[in-house]
TrEMBL record:
Top-rank lineage group of the source organism: Eukaryota
Record field: transmembrane: 32-50, 70-89, 162-179, 185-208
Protein name: Transmembrane protein 164 isoform X2
Keywords noted in UniProt: Membrane, Transmembrane, Transmembrane helix
Pfam family, one: TMEM164
Length: 263
């Protein structure tokens, strides 16, 4: 059986999701050097930024203890249902490897945040996930729906990514969780560095091992370096725009992070 439950349903007809081309565009030696050096850099950025964080201020106690509003419960039920349907598609289509997609991880986190009460821990998680809102936004600019052939499967793609962007804006305006000052970038440094670390340490080795979810084949070896540098700085501005409740985050050159780092 092996990986069949996770990768057997991924078709070779879509070259962006499978194939040896994306593995062979750089040497193993360079791939290992980049992974070790950049992962060390990401850990340093997260540690340094964490030490410089301002104390988290929670809402007043009556605000924390009050029951969830009908709107919040609606978003909780809606995202939970869409995410469950999406995982059902992955299981039936033998493509569960895609469950590690950052947007699916973010869906789990937002479900937890909607269900939980405000604490320093949940507020920290909320601020960190705000740095990953470029993912849902870019999913609309560069949709990956060719392999979605089940009825309603493409609809869940659009609904899920829309909710991932709508829910944080609702939470901010409801006052359940607070965000840092617009002039403070330590939380965005932590969130972005963790996202890049997640790609280099987990997704990249897993993709190479399974030869699936490879992203678009690359034609020059410095692609990952360019990608992480471009993403790190642009995501900071996207997060700050989202923190203001804007539906149009700043993206100078919007390219999906998966296209840089999945291989």
């Amino acid at each position: 059986m092996g990986w069949d439950w996770a990768v057997a349903g991924i078709s070779d007809d879509i070259p962006r999701t499978t194939g040896p081309e994306c593995i062979n565009y750089m040497t193993d030696r360079r791939r290992w050097m980049e992974t070790i050096l950049l992962s060390t850099l990401f850990i340093f950025i997260m540690h340094r930024s964490w030490q410089r964080l301002q104390p988290i201020k929670l809402p007043p106690l009556p605000e924390i203890q009050k029951p969830h509003s009908p709107t919040r419960l609606f978003f909780l039920i809606a995202l939970s249902m869409i995410f469950g349907i999406e995982m059902g598609f992955k299981l039936s289509g033998q493509s569960m490897i895609f469950a590690l997609n950052p947007c699916h991880v973010q869906s789990c986190l937002q479900i937890f945040l909607l269900a939980a009460k405000p604490t320093k821990t949940t507020t920290a998680l909320f601020r960190i996930q705000m740095s990953n809102l470029n993912g849902p936004f870019l999913a609309f600019l560069f949709p990956e729906v060719e392999g979605r052939t089940y009825p309603f499967e493409q609809a869940t793609y659009w609904i899920q990514h829309a909710l991932l962007y709508i829910i944080p804006i609702y939470i901010i305006r409801s006052g359940a969780y607070t965000v840092e000052d617009l002039r403070e970038f330590h939380w965005s440094h932590i969130g972005t560095a963790f996202m890049l670390f997640y790609h280099f340490v987990l997704l990249s080795p897993l993709s190479i091992n399974t030869k699936k979810w490879m992203g678009t084949p690359r034609d020059w070896a410095a692609y990952r370096i360019k990608g992480q540098n471009n993403t790190f700085y642009e995501v900071k501005f996207a997060q700050k725009k989202a923190n203001t409740g804007s539906s149009k985050p700043y993206i100078r050159r919007a390219i999906p992070i998966e296209n840089y780092l999945c291989c």
